[in-house]
Amino acid sequence: MGGAVRRTRDQVVPHSGVSAYFQAAVAVLAGVLVGVLAGVGQAEPRVQGRVVWHGWTEGVRLAAKQRRPLLVYFHDRYCIYCRRMDEETFADARVRQMIQSCFVPVLVERFENTASRGPGAEKVSSTALLRRYRVFVFPTILVLDFKNPAKEHLRIPGFFGPSEFLEMMAYISQGWYAHMSFGEYLERLLSRTLPKESLAAGCWRGT
Fold it and tell me: 20 to 30 A Cα–Cα from 95, which one of 12, 74, 163, 179?
């Protein structure tokens, strides 16, 4: 027959009619899908840049419970400067200690768009969060209020090294945001007119 395909003894097609190649492709696709589903609303924390990050839903819940601000990392796996944040800034022991002590870290991956149910039962995906918080630059760090995640305390767009990142995050972790704007904080930081003693001995929890 003209359309027949000649097979050797080693080329055995499963009885179901599905080729072994197709089965392997389905298995790989299933593995990728599991990774995507672990994105915005994942229950299991995930490590990126040696920091353990939560998904959005779990992070909001933990922030309210622990009374800690949300540190939301908008990440793009194809972004060079995101890679530098992972390999330099978030790999720094001082940065990891500050995040672990003072914040609830949340990772939002740009291309993981599987919707999950947020704390208010709304559907949440990375695309929805990017639109909600008007994030157009990667990486971007947002610090959000633990009582009301719609309230933004700080926005840091782009890459910053460990020392610069720690200085900017001190605006939140030491409680300066309750007393001055971020612009004023930076001016006083650069002119060295901030009090030597921080407002908060540990981490500022707000009111």
Answer: 179
